[in-house]
Structures are given as structure tokens and as C-alpha cells.
Amino acid sequence: MPELPEVETTVRGLEPVLKGQRLTSVEPRRADLRKAIPVDLRQRMTGATVTALGRRAKYGLIDTDRGDTLVFHLGMSGRWRVDPSELLAHDHLLIGTEAGRVVALNDPRRFGFLDLWPTDDIANYPPFLSMGPEPLGPDLTAAYLLAALEGRGASIKAMLLDQRIVAGLGNIYVCEALHMARIAPTRAAGRISVVRLERLVEAISHGVDRRDPGRRLVAARLCQARRRTRLFLQAVASLWSRGRTVRMRRDRQAADRGRTVDLLVSNVPTRLTI
Question: Any catalytic annotation for residue 3?
């Protein structure tokens, strides 16, 4: 599933192709993805000029001069293809510009979606109403987390995955941030000191912000077992382009049970049996 950094990278990749361009063609190639594609999307977008591109959590935003924002979500397998040499079976939306560029939204599993919403009311788009601050925004501070987590007995990992606390964080980056901040993922969220929360905020920003093209992130999906065993695979810090040894910690009993977990190593899926 594309995580927040991948969505941010996608938006930045689309920006030089679409921003300031008049859209000469907008062609939905099916009626729905996860939900119905707006029936008037072609009419409202064709001829419009893209004024800005942005992101909220894992949602991409394409603003136009007609006051409409195209909201897209990549779901499990979505991606935008720029100037494709040929059309693929799962290219579900084609957008052409007056400069002759073409972008295609490809989504084999169709768990993504497309929607239109008034640009000046985008803050009230239903999924955004209850979201917490952005991981890279100025509102995510140790003081904010201290107040938001006060008295909470749930684990810090569960709280960070709650979109009402922080918007857009997924399992991989929560695990990485907790590892970098040296905070156990099972620790009660309300019992973490402000000093540790300061480290956590820094780790979240460091892990999610992928603007440095030479940087590689290596993260493990946290493998949680049943309550009593608390088996987990927790790895691994960020690796820079020169590479480091992956560090991990696991319960010895995991090897006896032959558990299989999925790793994401520099965006290459890897399966590991522990």
C-alpha cells in the first residue's frame, strides 16, 4: 500500500506535468473504483486549468481554476503513469494537457478512488474533518502529543496509527519512528515523557520526509502476535544510500513457530521467516 511519503512523491512528480496546464481531455475509463467516479468528472475537469497540487494525509489533491479539487486516493496498488507509451488494462483515468502530456491513473486492485470537492471547502471534505495534524506540519509538536495522549492507556503505536491523533501515518513509518525514538511500541501512550515525545516528533519527521533522493528507508512491518506472547518483529532504522546492516529485535519463540513476516527494504518487498 502506498504510504504517505509515496503519496507526497507522487504529488511532486505530477506537479511539473500538470500545474499551470489546461486539461484538454479527461477520460474516466470505468464507472467506479472503490466507489463510483463522479459522473460529471469529465465535464467539470475538461478545459480547466490546474492551479495547484497538494496532499492531505494519504489523499492527493489537484486544484483547478473552476473551483473544483480532484481528490485521489491510491488505495492498495494505485500509481500515476506519466506519458505512458501504451495504455494498460488498469489505466482507469487518462488526463491530457495542452502541452501534449498525458498522465494515467493505474490501479489493478481498484481500492483507490476519485472524487470532486469545492476547493474553498476542502477542509470540510468528510474524511478530513476528524484528522489530526500532518506529520510534516508545524502543528505536530511534543506539547500537542502530550495533551492528545494524556491519560490514554492504549499503546503508543495504536495511538499514532489513529488518524485523529496524527494524519496519514502508516504501520511502517510508525514502527520506524518508535525505533528511532527508542520507545517500545507497546508502552502506554499516556505514560511517555515530553522529552521522549520530542524525540518521537523528530523521528516522525525524519522518517516521513523523503525529499533527499539519496536517502533510503528500510522499515519492517511490526509483527504482533496474540496478546499473551507479544511477539513482534521491530526493525529498523533509516539507511542512507551507502547502506547499513539492518537491525532487528525479535522474540526467540518466533523462530520455533516459523512465523513469516513481510519486510519493505528500499521499497522492495521481502519475505522473511523467523
Answer: yes
